[in-house]
Amino acid sequence: MNIKHEIRIFLIGAAMGVANIIPGVSGGTIAVVFGIYEDLMEALGNFLTNKDKRWQYVRFLIVLFTGALVSIISLARVLSWCFENYPLPTVYFFLGLIIGSIPVVIKSHPDMQISIQRVVAFLAGLSAVIILALIQQGSGGESGGAEIVSPDISDYIYFIFSGAIAASAMIIPGVSGSFILILLGVYWKVLGALSGLTSTLFNDGFSAEMVTKISVLGSLFIGVVVGILVFSKIMSWALKNHPAVTMYLILGLIVGSLYQIFPGFEMSIQGIISLLTLAIGIIISLKFGVEKGSEVS
């Protein structure tokens, strides 16, 4: 990668980082939107085994995940402010990104002619996301609040398990890792561990509260790493051996995510602004999504 590509990958990573902390928005979808999904799966699935391209894969992943980490730390508060004050325009912007990615996916493989097998894959992806959304709507959200009180070994094992499942979802277009954490009952606890992390460290040092926060986040991180490494191999294999069917599955997941995050519409100033942010999202998606070609070479 040259410096221009590295800047682009960093910015895509930043967008993925923000997306992954928003319930309903998928970081995998953002990777598809900007045309790097196949490269991401290839790098994640092969950087440990492919000695010839290991450095290219590692470099690509470091730049991408650095962008994600920076955005999570620096933009999460801004994004939270946008959702609190301008929820409709913010969600419509992400809808625009997703809608604009659909033609990118269709053009991503030279043979995308319709067949029964491919239609089944599309419907499977579509149904999976809609079912998850309906389960989320019926669950009433996570119970128990954000407080973490003296977790024991079984709690830490469950955090590892939750991290692995959520990470698998994070790299699937259309499936929200944050939604999975909510369904598993740990989303607000994880946010509680993240909340005030640096201020607690500076004010109280490695107090009992700080150790608990780090232990919770550390166990979740272990699960995330395991989930990404395992599931990325599955997706990398599928993209290499059944590319068209896999892309139809991804297309179904993406279309299903529109149902998952669609907030409705209102005739108001916010509604008009939302149409503008929708158009901006579509334009950005089409603009960056057409820049295909390997980003890890």
What does this structure look like?
The protein has helices at residues 3-20, 27-33, 37-46, 54-85, 87-106, 116-139, 153-170, 177-183, 187-194, 197-204, 208-241, 243-261, 269-289. The chain is mainly alpha-helical and 297 residues long. Helix 6 (116-139) runs parallel beside helix 12. It is globular.
Outline of the structure:
This protein has helices at residues 3-20, 27-33, 37-46, 54-85, 87-106, 116-139, 153-170, 177-183, 187-194, 197-204, 208-241, 243-261, 269-289. With 297 residues, the chain is mostly helical.
Topology, please?
Blueprint: H1 3-20, H2 27-33, H3 37-46, H4 54-85, H5 87-106, H6 116-139, H7 153-170, H8 177-183, H9 187-194, H10 197-204, H11 208-241, H12 243-261, H13 269-289
Helix pairs in contact: 1-2, 1-4, 2-5, 3-4, 3-11, 4-5, 5-12, 5-13, 6-12, 7-8, 7-11, 9-11, 11-12
Observed structural traits:
297 residues; mainly alpha
Q: Major sheet, described briefly? A: none
Counted beta strands: 0
Query: Which bin fits the share of residues in helices?
Result: over 70%
The shape, in one word, is globular
How much β-strand is present in the residues? under 5%
What is the alpha-carbon Rg in Å? 19 Å
Order of secondary-structure elements: HHHHHHHHHHHHH
As for the number of domains, it is 1
Give the low-confidence spans. Answer: 141-146
- Please give the count of helices: 13
Mean pLDDT reading: 78
Which structural class matches the secondary elements? mainly alpha
Question: CA-to-CA gap between the ends?
Answer: 6 Å
